[in-house]
Design brief:
The chain is of the alpha+beta class and 122 residues long. It is built from 4 helices and 4 strands; from the N terminus they run αβββαβαα.
Length: 122
């Protein structure tokens, strides 16, 4: 059996973790999930964040990333992808998109709970 490589934390990932912490958003970093190690996983949500360096834009890596995203979406996860450049130069835009995804996911969860409560009450 091949030993899994320990995920590496990039400068952009460390920066984004610090920025999100400043905004009160807690994330897990490289926590195993269905055989994958998402860069960041917003705690208590199904929102995943990938911070992509240059090698993610090669045809081979794009195909791998697409396959991985399809699998994780089947489990109900929302995957947000940002380039290193976006994180380092447009962090406000990145944070706004993450906040919007968290809000949407929480609203979706609340709607499911309300529907379930109504079904139980009928």
């Amino acid at each position: 059996m091949q030993k899994a490589l320990k995920p590496v934390t990039t400068r952009s990932e460390r920066l984004l973790i610090a920025i999100l912490k400043f905004h009160g958003i807690e994330v897990w970093h490289n926590k195993p999930l269905h055989g994958f190690y998402p860069d960041l996983w917003v705690v208590n949500t199904k929102v995943l964040i990938e911070v992509d360096g240059r090698y993610h834009y090669t045809p081979e890596q794009k195909a791998k990333d697409k396959r991985r995203s399809l699998i994780l979406r089947k489990y109900g996860y929302k995957i947000l992808r940002f380039s290193n450049w976006m994180v380092e130069n447009r962090s406000k835009t990145v944070v706004d998109k993450i906040k919007a995804a968290i809000k949407k996911e929480r609203e979706k969860e609340r709607a499911k709970q309300v529907k379930l409560l109504k079904a139980v009450g009928d």
